[in-house]
Design goal:
Elements lengths: L6 H17 L5 H10 L4 H21 L1 H15 L4 H25 L2 H10 L4 H30 L7 H7 L2
Helix pairs in contact: 1-2, 1-3, 1-8, 2-3, 2-7, 3-6, 3-7, 5-6, 5-7, 6-7
Length: about 170
């Protein structure tokens, strides 16, 4: 006999998955929030959960910066020098400082690596955290608004999406 999963459990699992995906480096909040919205999650709740997951791991990265720096240096040694993305981020930092790197970095290298590079290249941990957090919020709100109104304009809000079907138990 197959046990039926309750709708609240399904909803909790959907938001938990969104949180975890937003927390993973390189799967940024501004990428997973639209997936949640297209899937039928509440846009404001998806935005809040996604931003929280992304910001929390950026904070942890900055707090444990020294360990992460050692891990990155060992990784870089294995690859024979810095990659193209890191070089681009370095140019951004030299030209625009922490604010410029934080606002543009997530589009190029992701928010986690942006926070790491902002501190490594001379920014303070506090400035890096504040600017990267602001950047995560800006990009996440922008994509959430665009997706929300895009879905509305296309009429997809009434359709049964894959996530909506799961949440309703269909």
């Amino acid at each position: 006999m197959k046990k039926e999963v309750q709708p609240m459990t399904r909803m909790f699992m959907a938001y938990l998955i969104l949180f975890i995906l937003a927390a993973v480096p390189m799967t940024e909040a501004y990428i997973v929030i639209p997936v949640g919205i297209f899937g039928g999650l509440n846009p404001l709740a998806a935005l809040t959960v996604g931003v929280t997951g992304n910001v929390l791991t950026v904070l942890l990265l900055i707090v444990f910066m020294d360990r992460f720096r050692n891990w990155m240096e060992n990784r870089r040694k294995k690859r024979d020098g810095p990659g193209k993305r890191n070089e681009r981020a370095g140019r951004l930092f030299r030209k625009y400082g922490v604010p410029g790197l934080a606002l543009l970095g997530p589009l190029i290298v992701g928010s986690h690596l942006t926070a790491f590079l902002a501190v490594s290249l001379g920014g303070t941990r506090r400035a890096a955290f504040l600017w990267v957090t602001a950047s995560i919020i800006i990009w996440s709100v922008l994509t959430a608004v665009l997706v929300y109104f895009g879905v509305d304009f296309m009429g997809a809000g009434d359709k049964k999406t894959f996530l909506r079907k799961y949440l309703e138990g269909a």
